[in-house]
Amino acid sequence: MLDVEFAELSDPGLSRAHNEDFLGHVIPSSPAQVQSQGWLFALADGVGGQEKGEVASRLAIDAVLAGFRKIPKGIMHISLLPRLVQEANQAVFDEANSANSRPDPHYTPPGGAIVPGGAHMASTLVLCALRFDSAVISHVGDSRCYMFRSGTLTSLTHDHTMVREQLRSGLISMADAAYHANRHLLTRSLGSEMFIAADTITVNILPGDVLLLCSDGLHGYVPDPAIQWMLNCAPDLNAAAVALIAAANLTGGHDNVSVQLIRVRSIERMGLYRGRPYRLL
Length: 281
Fold this sequence. Notes:
- By secondary structure, the chain is α+β, with helices and mostly antiparallel strands.
- It has a single domain, classed as 4-Layer Sandwich (Phosphatase 2c, domain 1), CATH 3.60.40.
- The chain has 8 helices and 13 strands.
- It has helices at residues 31-36, 52-69, 77-98, 162-168, 174-178, 216-219, 224-233, 237-250; strands at 3-11, 21-26, 39-47, 122-123, 125-131, 134-140, 144-149, 152-155, 199-204, 210-214, 257-266, 270-273, 276-279.
- Strand 5 (125-131) and strand 6 form a beta hairpin.
């Protein structure tokens, strides 16, 4: 049966007055729920300054967790997670409109992500749901999910930012992207439009795998090789989380930083027949 352990930690950093990141998870309460529902981990990075980003990220996580807890038995995560992202998007969009949070073309959050058009309330979101022998990852924005397997770190998500899209198109180099003035300009975020398209993938998981969810307060300031080195050196997940937060703050602590680390202890190998899972011997 699938079994995981996890650690999570969030820190406002050294330059921000408050924390606009928000974390959440749903843990199955019984072996039956392990098979029918699985685990969910969620991380959001609010955009907007003052308390607006903080509200956006909390609304997003609350909507996702509530939706996951009431899912029908046996629903496939690959179809569920994009729906949960849309529910989170609707919650942020509705709150922004009810609060009359309209664009200010001169507003730029210091050191944080910028939403096209300058909308004052928005959020990134990355979700990871695990069941049987697979993980489904769905995301919007530049919060990431990594796979750490056999000592090697690999990003499973692609940032929805102007610079990353230019990088994928070959318009700029990796060196230019690292210091580009628009590296925080989001091309997709929760709350900026009524409907949002999430990128969603499924990956097979193995015992010993570690999945890392993080905000750009980590990956924007700590290079991937350094993250990989700390995961290899840390004695456990809690120590790894503390080390990652400390590393981000050592670079100046310019942003809120949050991490979720999920280690796979065991899996249940499954196959699919006409959309229904069955156990593999």
